[in-house]
Amino acid sequence: MEKVKELLRSFGLPRLIIAGFLLLLFIVAPFVEINVGASLSDTLARFGMNSIMVLAMVPMIHSGCGLNFGLPLGIISGLLGATLSIETGVTGPLSFILAILYSTPFALILGWGYGQLLNRVKGSEMMIATYVGFSSVAFMSIMWLILPYSSPTMVWGYSGSGLRTTISTDGFYSHVLKDFLQINIGTLSISFGEILFFAIFAFIIWAFLHTKTGTAMTAVGSNPIFARASGINVNKQRTLSVMMSTWLGALGILCYQQGYGFIQLYQGPMYMAMPAVSAILIGGASVNKASIANVIIGTILYQGIVTMTPSVMNNLIHTDMSEVLRIIVSNGMILYALTRKTGASR
Amino acid sequence: MPLLEMQNVSKEYNGNPVLKDVSFKLKQGEVLGLVGENGAGKSTLMNILFGMDVIHQTGGYGGKVLIDGKEVKFASPLDALKAGIGMVHQEFSLLPGFTAAENILLNREPENKNVLSLVFGPRTNTIDRKELQKKAIDAITKLGVTLDPDMLVSEMPVGHKQFTEISREISKSSIRLLVLDEPTAVLSEKEAEMLLKAIRNLSAQGISVIFITHRLQEILDVCNKVIVMRDGRIINELDAASTSIQEMARLMVGREVSAGRAKEKAEERPLSDKIVLSIKNLWVDMPGETVKDVNLEVHQGEFLGIGGLAGQGKIGIPNGIMGLYPAGGSVKLNGQEIQLNNPRACLDASLAFVSEDRRGVGLLLDESLEWNVAFTAMQTQNRFLKQYLGGLIKWRDQEAIKEITDQYINELQIKCTSSKQRAKELSGGNQQKICLAKAFALQPKLLFVSEPTRGIDIGAKALVLQALKRYNRENGVTIVMISSELEELRQCCDRIAIVTDGAISGILPASTPSEDFGILMVGKTGKEAK
Q1: pLDDT at A135
Q2: Residues B181, B237: one domain?
Q3: Is residue B89 part of a domain?
Q4: Does B167 share its domain with B178?
């Protein structure tokens, strides 16, 4: 009994409730004429699209900068890379690689500045980060109109200048990862390309956290005064973590775009941080502790709920409750996690 | 009949006795001096008198407190105030934007009724400014000091803030007993004199005073009798007129003459001529422990103790040298100048530091013991790492880390479930041992240890001190230990330096009688006392 309790405690009550709820949805699904295979495929596809943005939370959590509510900054770097890549006119998978390359310097520079800012507001990083995200989105809304893009696939048709709100990635890198190594069994289709892509970066982060620098980063998050007394340059470690998070955010949005098929500009990145934050928290991470397992479990649970609730609930009660439920789950989870300082299972 | 009487008062925190069998009487108008080292139990005694929450939350106290011969049990400080007991704490509790008069009568202001208050009740009464002023001036005159009632607290010198606090207490009409907790610590000599005069005034008006201070001369100046406390007991009750600073100092510091303790004393060792660490004109800006001008030479292989009362700056010395607080001056290790304000430079120079703030600075509470022990050595000396790709990738060597942690767990007898246990789950004593292990793992040439036995039980204390002594004797590592407990220093050290007011007031061999140290602590040089 003690062992069962211990196991339950380590898994965490909120995760258990959400996992139970998700399971319930899958059990109910066939009775309301929903195809379980298709639902599973959908969940996995969303996992592939969103997982890297969730992974982007990890470095900043480790260094004690809290949850990366400033993810839109990373996303904007990704958007710059994406639009520049399309502007060059390169098509096919190569455009995806080009987009990553173009977005990298933006991510590193913006990340560095963002890191400097967060070093000056220790203790209230998350609040500041939220507004860094919001204000950068607003700033870029102006820039998307002004920047001298000219590719006809991207600019407004009637004026010939200014970028459109949504740009199709068709012919460029739409589904480059999704269709790579895709396996279909009946209605179930699994895209191993996306999963592999995530696995590579998850491994890199995992390995990084086992190196000397990674250890220092974790120690800075765990007790910055201890780290300083051990000769660590706390600000440098924090800046590094913010740059990593921002770059992963850029990568994450590119991965999202290839699965979704569209680039969303202007207000698109505004609330992108919330699902990612919520997912890693559902996965069992806390404000200052997170692991790769938290990322994987959290993304599956969160995306599972997001996929299943609309369809099942709509068919069940014939009222559109789904969005309300989704918001309750995602914001409720953020609220719950922010009230706890530690308690992550590692 | 005495105004206040305590009968066999005792108190323990989590099984740790901090007050044992304390009894005393205080007559009306009497001034009682209360002296003792830090941790002797003075504050706990006053907390009991005031019915502070911390006492109730930790299981109450034993014995009786009597006022006018009737037993009282205060449920909160408010009850104590109603019974006519006032207290002035070390920290000021004043509103900076209010004037002296407003502060003195805060929440007890004389009021005027008006039309609104007839309708809405007394909450809408207005303040009677004239009466307020008059009452404040009354209180100030009663105290017998000069204080402008219209001055804003934020613009006052510290002394006047202190007077405002005391005026506030005595402006309460029921006041009969006033407790002053180190009121002169922040005052200049002139202000302190005024305060002492004020205390005599109060006493003449029939108000009893309990006066806690470290400045023994003031006790002689103002008190009728003195209670000396040590280790939670009243060691002696003295008549202030017939005692001396020396006697009080000796009683305060204490010395057990039993044979058992004497054996533990450090043996006399010849001092090496080689100077390993030389400190010149060191200043450190550490809040509450300011170091002003420290000059000190540490010899090769010695075990140097640094003692002194709390707040005098002894803790600031290692914290400043190790770069944790802003510092200046010159520190040389083996003739090499050490860069100050840079923790990394100190660690690279083979200095190590066990902080007095175990949980804040010393440990990664949420991480495993392995991390705690190995982290600093890993980061500063590249140990416990496997290198790949020509050193490009430095991978944590989990086995080497476990090995060294297990080694120290055995050596220092650390009680834990495994080396993977989190540091916060250990008891205070075992956490301290982890801090030592962390420092030992650095293989330092010179080790600073600050308050190594603070907040740990007696058994663990002995183990920690033994480990340090052994490390010094067997590995030949020079150790500088800072501690508030003189007995502890005398057990381990070769020489003991005493810090008073941010500077070294003297260095004596550990075998020197303890009253000499006591005199150094209270701020008189050896010569003057003689």
Answers
A1: 93
A2: yes
A3: no
A4: no
Q: What count of other Cβ atoms lies within 10 Å of the Cβ of residue B153?
A: 19
Q: In chain B, which residues have their Cβ closer than 8 Å to the Cβ of A216?
A: 379
State the distance between the two ends of chain A, measured CA to CA, in whole angstroms: 22
Q: At what angle do helices A13-28 and A2-11 cross, to 10 degrees?
A: 80
Q: Write the burial class of residue B480 (CB in 10 Å: 0-12 exposed, 13-18 middle, 19+ buried).
A: buried
> Which residue in chain B is spatially nearest to A217 when comparing CA positions?
B379
Round to whole Å and give the CA distance between A134 and B260: 71
- Average of per-residue pLDDT values in chain B: 85
Residue type, A335: L
- Give the whole-angstrom CA distance, residue A103 versus residue A243: 12
Q: Which residues of B11-46 are buried (b: 16+ CB within 10 A; e: fewer)?
A: bbeeeeebbbebebbbeebbbbbbbbbebbbbbbbb
For residue A230, the chain B residue with the least C-alpha distance is: B376
Whole-number Å distance between alpha carbons of A121 and B142: 49
How close are the terminal C-alpha atoms of chain B, in Å? Answer: 41
ipTM score assigned to the predicted complex: 0.82
- Nearest by CB to residue A230, choosing from B365, B376, B393, is B376
| Both structure tokens of B290 | 């300011």
SS3 assignment, position B179: strand
Q: Which two tokens stand for residue B467?
A: 């480990």
Distance of alpha carbon B384 from its chain centroid, rounded? 38
Query: Which residue, A60, A50, A225, A49, is CA-closest to A129?
Result: A60
- Which chain B residue is nearest to residue A206, measuring alpha carbons? B395
Of the segments A297-311, B140-154, B324-338, which one has the largest average pLDDT value?
A: B324-338
pTM, full prediction:
0.74
Considering only CA atoms, which of A3, A69, A57 is closest in space to residue A294? A57
In whole angstroms, give the CA distance from residue B302 to residue B320: 21
CA distance B314 to B147: 35
**List of chain B residues whose C-beta atoms are within 8 Å of the C-beta of residue A233:** 344
Output the six-digit token pair for A333.
């989870």
Tokens of B382: 């590249």
Which residues does residue B386 pair with via DSSP β-bridges, in sequence order? B395
Cβ(A147)–Cβ(A84) under 8 Å?
Answer: no
Best of A6, A209, A210, A223 to disrupt the B interface (most B CBs within 10 Å) is A223
Task: For chain A, list the domains and their CATH numbers.
Answer: 16-28+35-338 (1.10.3470)
**Which residues neighbour B423 within 8 Å (Cβ) at sequence distance 6 or greater?**
B363, B364, B365, B366, B367, B368, B369, B372, B431, B434
One digit per residue, pLDDT tens: chain A, 346 residues?
677 777 777 677 777 888 888 888 888 888 888 888 888 888 888 899 999 999 999 999 999 998 999 999 999 999 999 999 999 888 888 999 999 999 999 999 999 999 999 999 988 888 899 999 999 999 999 999 988 888 888 888 787 788 888 888 888 888 888 888 888 887 788 888 889 999 999 999 999 999 999 999 999 999 999 999 999 999 999 999 999 999 999 999 999 999 888 999 888 888 888 889 888 888 888 888 899 999 999 999 888 888 887 778 777 777 777 677 777 777 877 777 667 644 443 3
**What pLDDT is recorded for position B38?**
67
Residue B354: inside a domain: yes
In a shared domain, residues B44 and B160 = no
**B395 touches A at CB < 8 Å:** yes
pLDDT given for residue B263 in this prediction: 43
Domain that holds residue B427: 272-529
Contact B520, B352 (CB under 8 A): no
Q: CB of B215 within 8 A of CB of B191?
A: no
Convert the pLDDT of each residue in B285-303 to its tens digit: 988 788 999 999 999 989 9
The domain total for chain B is 3
Nearest to A229 among B322, B365, B396 (CB): B322
Q: Three-state SS for B200?
A: helix
